[in-house]
Amino acid sequence: MLPSNALDAIRCCGPIIFPNIFMLLKMLCCLPVSTSTPERSFSGLKRIKTYLRNSMKEERLNGLVLLSYYRNVVITPDEVLNEMAKKPRKIDLVL
Question: What PANTHER family does the record point to (predicted)?
């Protein structure tokens, strides 16, 4: 009976008899099954960078892509103010 997946094939194939095939099967087992994260990133980039916004600088484009990717993360205004208060300023912010 033929093996149905790479793990079954490794069990059937001995490293002494078929060393090259065994090494190939080991590499095959290490490959990811899907690449959904990069596909999701490229699809988000395609939505953001339309023809009309094609003249956008890279820094702004990166910021918009990050906002799109992490849109489910909830950040409160207090967290933003606390982060801003930690950084040194020329003028003290009194709240």
Answer: 52 KDA REPRESSOR OF THE INHIBITOR OF THE PROTEIN KINASE-LIKE PROTEIN-RELATED, DUF4371 DOMAIN-CONTAINING PROTEIN
Residue in 29, 28, 67, 25 with CA at minimum distance from that of residue 45: 67
Is 36 buried (19+), middle (13-18) or exposed (0-12) by CB count in 10 A?
Answer: exposed
- How far, in Å, CA of 45 to CA of 39, rounded? 10
Q: Residue 3 in contact with residue 12, Cβ under 8 Å?
A: yes
Put simply, whether the predicted model's pTM sits higher than 0.90 gets the answer no
How many angstroms separate the CA atoms of 91 and 84, rounded?
Answer: 12
Amino acid at 90: K
- Each residue of 2-41: pLDDT tens digit? 888 888 888 888 788 888 988 888 888 887 777 777 777 7
